[in-house]
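Let us work through a complete example step by step.
Step 1: write down the sequence.
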Amino acid sequence: MKSTKPVYLDCNATTPLEVEVREAVIQFMSEDFGNSGSRTHEYGAKAKRAVLRAREEVARLVQSDPDEIVFTSGATESNNLAILGLARHGHETGRKHIVSTMIEHKAVLEPLEFLATQGFEVTLVPPTEGGWVDPSALRDALREDTLLVSVMQANNETGVIQPMSEFLNVLKDHPAYFHTDAAQGFGKLTSSLNHTRIDLTSISGHKIFGPKGIGALVVRRREFKRVPLTPLFYGGGQERGLRPGTLPVALIVGLGLASELAMKYAEERNQKCLEYRRKVLGALGSLSPVFNGDPERTLPHVINIAFPGVDSEALMVAVKEQIAISNGSACTSQSYKPSHVLKAMGLPEADIKGAVRISWCHLTQDADWSEVANIVRRIM
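Step 2: predict the structure and record it as tokens.
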């Protein structure tokens, strides 16, 4: 029986659970529910082994050591720990300058805004019109007292991939710590996260077909020294004191398995996403769409697009029975304001107001794209 639900096309906001992941999470919630901190019985021992394996799977995906993985509730917490966790070190060393970009997720921009009230100076580098940051602009923003550089791996709204290797080359001889919010790219753009010059990497389980409420911060050693992070809260000493509290074993197992599957099926998933992209563009290309973000630098599973004379809210309502899409970050869409990302790119107001994000994955069903195109044509 054909589903009456619209086809889900908002995978940048959250992804569906892989069946194997769901089954593993349920098993560790209902049967193997031990506390990984309990050492006196098999329930705790099994939970501890499961956490260790998950830590290894996450680490394998970014080629780090398992003990460099700190489990968190998701990329937002990881971003906060990476940024706010360096504040004490910045005050102690007098290095209180931070470089980031205008197109970061609010989970980076808002912690930076807080640090600006605490005596830090924040430089936000603007993007090009194509949505990527020019490495030379990043270089120009650096100072001797720069403590941290934080640049996302790929943008959540436009899907534009940032030139990570060039950023790392800029920082080759600079002592600043480098952090990347890799929520959108972890498990999809794996190779660019493997570089040992990336000190801090934020990831999220629900962006790679795992459960919500779990993520990690990769904290790499630099010349055998850990990044001098201060925890945001205290009690229990778990995760090497950086993130105390009872570990959510079932969610961690889900993240670990999702990471393992992401590595195993990376090429297959990528090809499916590219094929889906061809279908989408084949159907909508005749409507003279405007692409927000350089199409040559965009993730294979996302487009940010506007149609001449069509408001994004009107478009989403018109196609809501066929497809489920969004017009911005899920974290800010409840009180919609013009996208700070698209504004920073210097796009025309009409393109910003008309922008919608369409994002899919290897699990996405086919939509009736000819009908979608007809609906868009009628409201243009």
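Step 3: interpret the result. The first helix runs from residue 19 to 30.
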